[in-house]
Amino acid sequence: MKSMDGLESVLSRGVDSIYPSRNLLLEKLRRQKLRIYNGIDPTSTSIHLGHSIILRKLAQFQKLGHKIILVFGDFTGMVGDPSGKDTQRKPLTRRQVLENSSSYKSLVGKILDFKKNPPEIFFNSNWWDKVKAPEILEMLSHFTVQQLLERDMFQERIEKRRPIAASEFLYPILQGYDSVAIDTDVEIGGTDQTFNMLVGREFMKIKEKKEKFVITIPLLEGTDGRKMSKSFGNTIDLNEEPNQMFGKIMSIKDDLIVKYFTLLTDVGLDEISKIEESLKNSTINPRDAKINLALEIVKIYHGESEAKNAQNEFERVFQEGGVPETKKVGSKTGKIKALDLIMNLEMASSRSEAKRLIEQGGVKSNGEKIVNPNQLIDVEIGTIVQIGKLKAVEIMRS
Amino acid sequence: MKSMDGLESVLSRGVDSIYPSRNLLLEKLRRQKLRIYNGIDPTSTSIHLGHSIILRKLAQFQKLGHKIILVFGDFTGMVGDPSGKDTQRKPLTRRQVLENSSSYKSLVGKILDFKKNPPEIFFNSNWWDKVKAPEILEMLSHFTVQQLLERDMFQERIEKRRPIAASEFLYPILQGYDSVAIDTDVEIGGTDQTFNMLVGREFMKIKEKKEKFVITIPLLEGTDGRKMSKSFGNTIDLNEEPNQMFGKIMSIKDDLIVKYFTLLTDVGLDEISKIEESLKNSTINPRDAKINLALEIVKIYHGESEAKNAQNEFERVFQEGGVPETKKVGSKTGKIKALDLIMNLEMASSRSEAKRLIEQGGVKSNGEKIVNPNQLIDVEIGTIVQIGKLKAVEIMRS
């Protein structure tokens, strides 16, 4: 590891694969400044730690003087990327996409530098709104149905007899054309984007006789061990309060500690190796490794002192058997369905997260466990609703 | 049969199927004047008798006061309809399509009335050139990949590992939108168009909440018994000279006589039944039935007296053992490949037709049969090249 220079390390830490090859890209990056791009379909208002890995990788290239390009998919977001989705995505409206984009942009600013060598930002409706039918058909003529069907995920949908909309079927070609439109040298994305990005590579060869490089980044597991995804309600979002972010990181499975350190912090690889070793030998308590991890991550998004405060609050609650700080929140009173109550009190970011929290037994009303999302709760002034050991609210008049 | 009125006869003679049902369409046609449409991608400069069946059906509706609409696919022709094609069609350029369209239009005038209740003619680039990416994707979102893949022909291509271009895959949806753009009540096409036309029916329901009727017309066999198609070189074209048209009709297989009478002439069904009976009982010579048939068809496109002349010429050559009238045609002399010679002398309309004629043993040079399209022929001034019993040319200096 010691022998790697900065660039080699950027191309290996937290990188899954590089197409056509790591060495060719390394050579090219040494010779000239490249245009390096990531496309984001803003499907929600938040960015989670899974997304942050790609943004952090972009920030490393940015520091080395390369030009970062972000494409917000306000057009492709309306089509719906089928990547990793075993059912059809509900297409977004342009209005939703634009709202989400503006929220994304401010979160991206926590990772990328918008002053020095700032990223170029595009909305892909800029070109797509102008593309007409004859051009689209010309684009499509370069690809075959068989090529597109090769995709695992489509095969899976066909087997499970789940519909593939003709529009989402073409998604890889649409994403591919974005590469051509911004004339990029490199595209970075999650491993679930590999197919789409390679179609874009093909497109660049056909249209511009140019070799676009593709860098794939591993996917991150969320708090429940499954892929981190808004639809699983298991994300840790960049805009979460320090206490909440800290607590969620403490709740990840122990075998993810090393992966989180590697992908989400600036801790050196040597030190991470030592932590890994210590965990194996049980010379360190996983809880202590996680506290260290949570501190490192929260620091990045909220600064050192907020991270410290979060650690103190966490330790107070857990080690001293305390109860979480209780916020007073206005609410209607009377009989309210548990799921609706959690949403009204804004204690979960989505109905699916709220449902999961209840079903995992983490939600209590006046100390009594709620087991069924449809259960009717007697809500009165003074009722205390608690989620896990980190969040609690006391009902006041709304 | 006697009990059918004109409309019933129009909906049964030479009709394969009607969607959703013959009775519903009959009712509707009795109540009001409808917009009845056929789409043609002009893939060549000529129209053959196979196409004429649809045009003749349209003419029948036109006479009853319904509005006929023809859509020339100058946009869809560039995409290439995969119907009935087991390999990918070579897309046409817009220039080719426009040239072909103008030739088509003049041929259509032989069947449809352009003075009284004239057809509306559209080029589908009119709307397609304006359709933009977001609209196309919206259109596609109503259909699934599985629906489109159900098509026999695509399944066949997948089995044979022949490519299906993503563009031609979408052809049915493109054709479907044409129905919406012209707001048609009925679409007529060959049975090989059934899938495309039913997608258009679906489209009309989704977009306009309207029930579009679909009428399918049987496909016609050509001079070699296979489906009549330019790519087989077995067509009888509407713009062929009377002698040639007459001779080609005489060359069809005997078991097609009744089908040709039914689909291509105005001879009454009663009389056709009698001919069918007589052929079965061998109380009529198939050659005589065919002469009758050829007369009827040539009459439609060239008038009665030209048809009679063609019959006389045919009988002179065949019955009196005569040789066909010999035209003098200029040509290079020397050793020339048989296939090239036939093409240079314009004795076949395509290389595939020329090849077929040679391989079927119909081509002679100075009385000697040519058996191989690649055979070198000694061409001199005075050499006589003969195809079948109907065409002969004598070489003169070019």
From TrEMBL, chains A, B:
A GO molecular-function descriptor: ATP binding
Catalytic activity: tRNA(Tyr) + L-tyrosine + ATP = L-tyrosyl-tRNA(Tyr) + AMP + diphosphate + H(+)
Domain of life: Bacteria
InterPro entries per the UniProt record, alphabetical: aa-tRNA-synth_Ic, Rossmann-like_a/b/a_fold, S4_RNA-bd, S4_RNA-bd_sf, Tyr-tRNA-ligase, Tyr-tRNA-ligase_bac-type
EC number: 6.1.1.1
Signal sequence range: none
Protein's UniProt keywords contain Iron-sulfur: no
Family: Belongs to the class-I aminoacyl-tRNA synthetase family.
Name assigned to this protein: Tyrosine--tRNA ligase
Species of the source: Candidatus Woykebacteria bacterium RBG_13_40_15
